[in-house]
Design goal:
Distance between the termini: 29 Å
Radius of gyration: 15 Å
Largest sheet: 2 strands, antiparallel
Structural class: mainly alpha
Helix content: 40-55%
Number of helices: 4
Shape: globular
Bound molecules: zinc ion
């Protein structure tokens, strides 16, 4: 029982942390520095966020850079697992 409770709290903490990271979204593409407007619904939907929770890093990629990165860099797939 105790172990399960602890696990549950861990999940809540992770969620809270994730929300905080979302609050601190960059306002530009992490690759080409194109401006990102988080109030623009189309942008929010089409841009890609990569969260590295351990390092507390939030990266934001515009669709163009995201596609280019996927095509060019195979080891990026390690990061894709962390996408929210
Ligand atoms: Zn870009």
């Amino acid at each position: 029982m105790k172990r399960e409770l602890k696990k549950q709290h861990g999940v809540e903490d992770a969620m809270a942390e994730k929300m905080m990271l979302f609050d601190s979204l960059p306002d530009e593409c992490s690759s080409c520095t194109k401006a990102f407007d988080k109030k623009d619904r189309d942008m929010v939907i089409s841009w890609n966020v990569v969260v590295r929770e351990k390092e507390g890093i939030v990266r934001l990629y515009c669709p163009q850079c995201w596609t280019a990165a996927q095509n060019a860099v195979a080891n990026l797939y390690g990061e894709i697992d962390d996408i929210v």
